[in-house]
């Protein structure tokens, strides 16, 4: 008989093995699914996971997608460490894209060297503002952060759609819901010729390192970890929960806002309604896959970016619907949470029933 | 007591229970005669709870036999245990507060039992008079004091005509007068042939009431004795081995100048079922231990939270530390001014369960370890390692998670951490609650040493013996009122016990509602 037994102490092996096991199970699930819809599983997996890394153009695109994922995931990792269930990275990203684009359009004819920094700053501040409102509601009225951040995601989305249909629409754009193309002065520099890799990926990697530094080296990071792991202990020690909540939320909002403005001033170059294919939501999975560790998030972001790329390729080459990416993400999170159960529990095999 | 020529009530033969990573019971054999009051003694983690849970059918032992009234039985669930006539009163009561006494008792009876009893309420009244339990079947449980609730639990066992009553640390929540009342009931039961298995930490109670005692250590039976032929000290020695030093007769000291002053502190409770603090005034002097006695839930938690600053409400000018108002400062700022605090809950408040001991040191002791906002982890690890050695904390090392330590060891760690900050004022709640004798001795000595260095210590405890042992001045708290403060030499257990029950309140204040303090304390 198989029984579930609590471990005396958490398994450090499972902490590392759990994400790998979850990925493996997800791939097995994928094989079964592709067979069921009459596609070759090996070919599908090749297109999904290997092809995105097969040539330099694809690798470049992978980095383009990795940037916003990582920026959002680092902020979320800190939030989740502090027990702040911020599901609003998507909204904060869109707010950053909207705010940044408004400033970029203001500078559209300007030669000022402040134009790009001001644009980025506007994106960061917009993201922080979008994170600040649910935080305020939580701390002041004890509202549920999960619900309010999700609602703010929709508000941000429709605000953005209204903006591209109204005030920010390109007057010479034949009525399409898009802004004018930004001037070169407000575009992020491209890192390598002939690719679209831009400065955003550098921001993302730096944010990962900063996040790691804060969490493991500073007293502030220690307070964040205590606050998340054990709130009564944080109160007992005299750490201010309000201050820590504000800090992690504003940090996450700033990074998500930066991700948003980096998209519009980077690969897109203008404000369009579909700035993000759900980066803010996928970043939740990235954060968990990276064990809520900012450096782990870097690896997880690579994997998730590959999956995004692979989804596009699978649609082009094999006619597999792009929804398969969302499904893969969902299944991955499901298996990850299931595997995490075995960090604190294990299966015990006994010869006979004991009761 | 009738132990001759009769079959034993209960016999345990080689009971063994293995938990992952710990052998809780190792070949334990115990015999209980009808009418015997048998004490089960041992330090925390000695395996007492596992053993009684095996008897009550909560835990199934891996090996061993249970022989009940001469025949072997297999007790697979508490309901089988109850059918046999085994009743158990847990340390934490299992009563529904929104139901009456009668309804609560009815819930745990089977249909046939109910039919046999007939009118349950009158049966309760009858038993209540017979044993002097004073339980009114129509009262709601939420209006009962802790002592009364315990009597309801005992009544629940009596209604089922219990032949063996298991009591898990029954006196830890009672005032001295209530303990005396409980013992009368237990003796009556014993005279009628009901066996009683009595788990306690308080050795003088064991010597007072028990016929026999079995001492467990590390899951094994190490000794048995007849308690009234022993002294508490000799039993303590059996419990911890030969290491136990004498823990008694410390010199009392007089404090010098006032350090912490609380003046006319009145405060509404933060939680709906909390206790309001009512006009509390006292001052704590350096170089003394001020003990506050009281039954749990009489405002101790609220008082500690407001003094430590965990309760963030601003009460400027009623609280001062070294003549400086601290009512508006938060807990972290008060710590910087020299205040330290050992909370009642060790795991989850005094220490973060999933963090290492080093990280838990940093939790409250950050001075000297932070430079420009960066943590000097190496110094913390070194400091923690020396502290572990100094306070003899049993663990693998500074990297051990707090939750892997036993209660007593974690408490020694927390005491060491707080004392290590050389506090001017130490607030200490139930420092040895659930801690074994050896660790309690170490904690007592650490407290006295800190006092002798000139610190002011506020000691809040439910253990009245401990307070008499350590405190230089004493007071009691009941329903949010603080009794007068007196020198320990000039009072006695009786007076403090009465103060714990609130007798001082009537002369002190007139605004008491018609509920008794004890009732309110438990709502």
Automatic annotation (TrEMBL), chain A:
TM region positions: 62-80, 92-108, 114-133, 145-164, 197-215, 244-261, 281-308, 320-343
Keywords per UniProt: Cell membrane, Membrane, Transmembrane, Transmembrane helix
Keyword Transmembrane attached: yes
Membrane topology, as annotated: Multi-pass membrane protein
Location(s), subcellular: Cell inner membrane
A cellular component term, taken from the record's GO annotations: plasma membrane
Name by which UniProt lists this protein: Sugar ABC transporter permease
Organism this protein belongs to: Marinomonas profundimaris
TrEMBL record, chain B:
GO molecular function, one term: ATP hydrolysis activity
Stored SMART domains: AAA
Alphabetized UniProt keyword annotations: ATP-binding, Cell membrane, Membrane, Nucleotide-binding, Repeat, Sugar transport, Translocase, Transport
Family annotation (Gene3D superfamilies): P-loop containing nucleotide triphosphate hydrolases
Lineage top rank: taxon: Bacteria
Protein's membrane topology: Peripheral membrane protein
UniProt keyword annotation of GTP-binding present: no
Gene Ontology CC terms, in alphabetical order: plasma membrane
Domain ABC transporter: 10-243, 262-504
Presence of the UniProt keyword Signal in the record: no
Compartments (UniProt record): Cell membrane
Protein name: ABC transporter
Lineage, broadest ranks: Bacteria, Pseudomonadati, Pseudomonadota, Gammaproteobacteria, Oceanospirillales
């Amino acid at each position: 008989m198989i029984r579930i037994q609590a471990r005396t102490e958490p398994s450090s092996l499972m902490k590392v093995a759990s994400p790998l096991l979850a990925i493996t199970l997800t791939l097995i699930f994928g094989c079964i699914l592709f067979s069921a819809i009459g596609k070759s599983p090996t070919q599908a997996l090749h297109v999904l996971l290997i092809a995105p890394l097969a040539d330099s153009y694809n690798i470049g695109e992978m980095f383009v997608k990795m940037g916003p994922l990582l920026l959002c995931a680092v902020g979320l990792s800190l939030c989740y460490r502090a027990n702040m269930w911020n599901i609003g990275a998507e909204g904060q990203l869109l707010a950053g894209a909207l705010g940044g684009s408004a400033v970029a359009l203001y500078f559209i004819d300007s030669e000022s060297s402040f134009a790009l920094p001001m644009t980025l700053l506007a994106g960061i501040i917009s993201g922080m503002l979008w994170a600040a409102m649910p935080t305020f509601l939580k701390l002041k009225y004890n509202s549920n952060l999960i619900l309010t951040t999700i609602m703010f995601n929709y508000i941000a989305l429709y605000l953005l759609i209204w903006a591209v249909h109204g005030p920010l629409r390109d007057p010479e754009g034949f009525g399409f819901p898009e802004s004018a193309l930004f001037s070169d002065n407000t575009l992020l520099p491209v890192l390598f010729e002939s690719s679209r890799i831009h400065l955003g990926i550098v921001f993302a990697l730096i944010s990962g390192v900063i996040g790691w530094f804060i969490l493991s080296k500073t007293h502030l990071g220690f307070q964040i970890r205590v606050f998340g792991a054990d709130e009564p202990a944080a109160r007992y020690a005299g750490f201010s929960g309000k201050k820590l909540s504000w800090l992690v939320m504003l940090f996450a909002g700033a990074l998500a806002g930066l991700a948003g403005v980096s998209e519009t001033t980077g690969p897109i170059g203008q404000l369009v309604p579909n700035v993000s294919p759900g980066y803010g939501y996928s970043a939740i999975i990235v954060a968990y896959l990276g064990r809520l560790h900012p450096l782990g998030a870097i690896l997880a972001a690579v994997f998730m970016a590959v999956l995004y790329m692979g989804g596009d390729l699978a649609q082009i080459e094999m006619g597999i619907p792009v929804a398969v990416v969302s499904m893969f993400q969902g299944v991955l999170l499901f298996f990850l949470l299931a595997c995490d159960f075995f960090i604190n529990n294990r299966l015990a095999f006994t010869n006979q029933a004991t009761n | 007591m009738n132990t001759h020529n009769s079959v034993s009530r209960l016999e345990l033969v080689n009971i063994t229970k293995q938990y992952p990573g710990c052998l809780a019971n190792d070949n334990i054999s115990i015999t209980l005669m009808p009418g015997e009051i048998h004490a089960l003694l041992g330090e925390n983690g000695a395996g007492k709870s596992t053993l009684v849970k095996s008897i009550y059918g909560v835990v199934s032992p891996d090996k061993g036999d249970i022989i009940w009234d001469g025949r072997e039985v297999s007790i697979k669930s508490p309901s089988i245990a109850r059918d046999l006539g085994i009743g158990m009163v847990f340390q934490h009561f299992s009563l529904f507060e929104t139901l009456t006494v009668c309804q609560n008792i009815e819930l745990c009876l089977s249909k046939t039992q109910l039919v046999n009893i007939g009118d349950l309420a009158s049966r309760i009244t009858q038993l209540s008079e017979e044993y002097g339990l004073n339980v009114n079947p129509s009262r709601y449980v939420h209006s009962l004091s802790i002592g009364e609730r315990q009597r309801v639990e005992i009544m629940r066992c009596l209604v089922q005509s219990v032949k063996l009553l298991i009591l898990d640390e029954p006196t830890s929540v009672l005032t001295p007068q209530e303990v005396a009342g409980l013992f009368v009931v237990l003796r009556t039961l014993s005279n009628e042939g009901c066996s009683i298995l009595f788990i306690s930490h308080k050795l003088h109670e064991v010597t007072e009431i028990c016929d026999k005692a079995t001492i467990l250590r590390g899951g094994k039976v190490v000794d048995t004795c007849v308690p009234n032929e022993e002294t508490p000290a000799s039993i303590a020695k059996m419990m911890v081995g030969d290491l136990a030093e004498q823990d008694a007769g410390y010199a009392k000291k007089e404090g010098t100048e006032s350090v912490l002053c609380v003046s006319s502190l009145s405060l509404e409770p933060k939680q709906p079922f909390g206790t309001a603090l009512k006009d509390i005034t006292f001052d704590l002097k350096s170089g003394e231990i001020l003990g506050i006695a009281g039954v749990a839930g009489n405002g101790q938690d609220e008082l500690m939270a407001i003094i430590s600053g965990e309760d963030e409400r601003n009460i400027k000018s009623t609280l001062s530390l070294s003549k400086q108002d601290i009512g508006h400062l938060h807990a972290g700022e008060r710590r910087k001014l020299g205040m330290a605090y050992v909370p009642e809950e060790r795991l989850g408040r005094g220490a973060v369960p999933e963090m290492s001991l080093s990280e838990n040191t940093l939790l409250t002791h950050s001075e000297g370890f932070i430079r420009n906002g960066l943590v000097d982890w190496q110094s913390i690890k070194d400091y923690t390692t020396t502290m572990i050695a100094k306070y003899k904390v049993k663990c693998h090392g500074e990297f051990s998670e707090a939750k892997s330590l036993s209660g007593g060891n974690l408490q020694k760690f927390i005491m060491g951490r707080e004392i290590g900050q050389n506090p001017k004022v130490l607030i200490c709640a139930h420092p040895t609650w659930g801690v074994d004798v050896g660790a309690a001795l170490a904690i007592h000595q650490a407290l006295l040493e800190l006092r002798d260095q000139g610190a002011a210590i506020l000691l809040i405890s439910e253990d009245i013996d401990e307070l008499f042992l350590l405190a230089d001045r004493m007071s009691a708290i009941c329903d949010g009122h603080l009794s007068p403060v007196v020198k320990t030499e000039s009072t006695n257990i009786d007076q403090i016990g009465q103060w714990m029950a609130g007798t001082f309140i009537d002369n002190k204040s007139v605004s008491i509602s018609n509920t008794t303090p004890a009732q309110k304390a438990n709502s």
